[in-house]
Design a protein that fits this description.
It is a single chain. By secondary structure, the chain is of the alpha+beta class. Helices cover 46% and strands 15% of the residues. The chain has a single domain, classed as Tetratricopeptide repeat domain (Serine Threonine Protein Phosphatase 5, Tetratricopeptide repeat, Alpha Horseshoe). A 5-stranded mixed sheet has the order 7-6-9-10-12, with no helix packed on it. α9 packs antiparallel against α10 and α14 packs antiparallel against α15. It is globular and about 80 Å long. 40% of the residues are buried.
């Protein structure tokens, strides 16, 4: 009887772990299209998934937002990031049935809300979509939302669910919040955020210079590389984040050319953030006691059950041992790490405020230390008033040259409505 219970209960769970749904396959295909620079195909694959109110709603909207921003569809990018933000910052999303299901079945029953650095970047990109449109009021709110307080968890394993709140050290958000306050005419708040960014990262002094930003009429937002990846140990129950900055190597500096002439970026070409480094910071990691406890208990039950079943010739003890081992295997099978992640995130985002005479230019961004990594746009307009903002997603498959305005394909199709 107990052997039958073991087969019926455990084997389906083990088989389930290796399955991939049609939606997951479509999402993976969308991500691959993005990585190869085919942003419109990525959008087309992700739109139906982003409309589905399931456990991947937030993740798929973040993915769609990345693809739409790279395709310069600011309406779609704003809509996707706004939807993600609404759920990410809400309370009780994973209460009730979903949390119970995660405890008893699988963490992926939970609505994905991302690691803290993923939540910060979702708000940052929402702010960028507003900033590009000069909607500085909404941009300010989004950049402020990216600077939420972090949780510094106690290192004592017995109290690992206890924490104290600490101020954010997200210098990228501080820089953009300072620039936004500057555009809104609040010199005091702009200087305050610039000064805080410099205090956190002294190397950003030129980038956070109030007077330089005040005169800037062009802003380049440049995504470089790829961010952290979730990894598991041999047990499959502990999530780590890699690679480390040391493993990935130093971040190269960008080069900008205007009509073939190289601009002197001075101290501006500094990375305001390294998501690989941020992900190694304990305050930027979410605590997950459910998985750790389940895994530890499962290991103990398997060991105890095996010992009890092998040491005794008593049928009752053997059955009790098998029962303990079966429960342990169930716990282990359902304690596998939730490795869902926002794969499009860059390693860093360069923010380059420039002063360029109004006109039309061929604008190129490249990384001389990374052969073949460049992107060129022809006929880029620099307005005579305000600050013109341009976004570059650097990828070896997306070199150009491209003609301005972006040659967008027709909007990605909406998900079919239910009949």
């Amino acid at each position: 009887m107990l052997q039958r219970f073991f087969i019926l209960a455990v084997v389906p769970l083990l088989l389930l772990a290796g399955c991939e749904s049609a939606a997951e396959k479509s999402a993976r295909a969308g991500v691959m299209s993005y990585v190869t620079g085919d942003f419109n195909t990525a959008r087309a694959k992700l739109v139906p998934l982003a409309d589905k109110p399931d456990q991947n709603f937030v993740l798929n909207n973040c993915r769609l937002g990345s693809a739409a921003l790279a395709a310069y569809d600011l309406d779609q990018a704003e809509n996707a990031f706004a939807k993600a933000h609404e759920v990410m910052d809400s309370v009780g999303v994973n209460d009730g049935g979903r949390t119970l299901g995660a405890t008893l079945v699988d963490e992926k029953v939970k609505v994905w809300k991302g690691e803290p650095y993923e939540r910060a970047m979702a708000n940052f990109y929402l702010g960028i979509t507003y900033y590009m449109r000069r909607d500085y009021g909404n941009a300010r709110a989004s950049f402020e939302n990216a600077l939420f307080k972090l949780r510094d968890y106690k290192s004592d394993d017995k109290k690992s669910d206890q924490y104290q709140e600490v101020e954010s050290n997200f210098a990228l958000g501080l820089l953009m919040l300072g620039k936004t306050w500057q555009r809104l005419g609040r010199e005091d708040l702009a200087r305050g955020n610039f000064d805080r960014a410099i205090k956190l990262r002294p190397g950003l002094q030129a980038l956070a210079d109030y007077n330089w930003n005040d005169k800037s009429n062009v802003l380049l937002v440049i995504d470089f590389g790829y961010g952290p990846r979730k990894i598991t140990d041999a047990d499959g129950s502990i999530v780590g984040l890699g690679p480390t900055p040391a493993q990935a190597g130093p971040i190269p500096h960008p080069m900008v050319t205007l009509n073939g002439g190289m601009l002197d970026l001075g101290g501006l070409a500094q990375p305001p953030v390294d998501l690989l480094r941020l992900a190694q910071d304990r305050t930027w990691q979410s605590i997950d006691t459910i998985r750790v406890v389940k895994s530890a208990v499962g290991t103990g039950l398997i060991a105890a059950g095996a010992y009890e079943a092998t040491r005794s010739r008593n049928q009752g003890n053997i059955e009790a041992g098998l029962a303990m081992a079966a429960v342990g295997l169930l716990l282990k099978a359902t304690s596998q790490a939730d490795v869902r992640q926002w794969e499009m995130l860059p390693r860093t985002v360069f923010i380059l405020p420039l002063q360029i005479k109004p006109g039309t230019y061929d604008l190129s961004v490249g990384f001389p230390q990374v052969p073949g990594l460049s992107q060129t746009w022809r006929g880029v307009p620099i307005a005579a008033d305000g600050e013109s903002t341009f976004y570059f997603r650097m990828q070896p498959y997306n070199v150009g040259p491209f003609d301005w305005p972006p040659n967008k394909a027709p909007p990605a199709p909406a998900a079919p409505s239910a009949q």
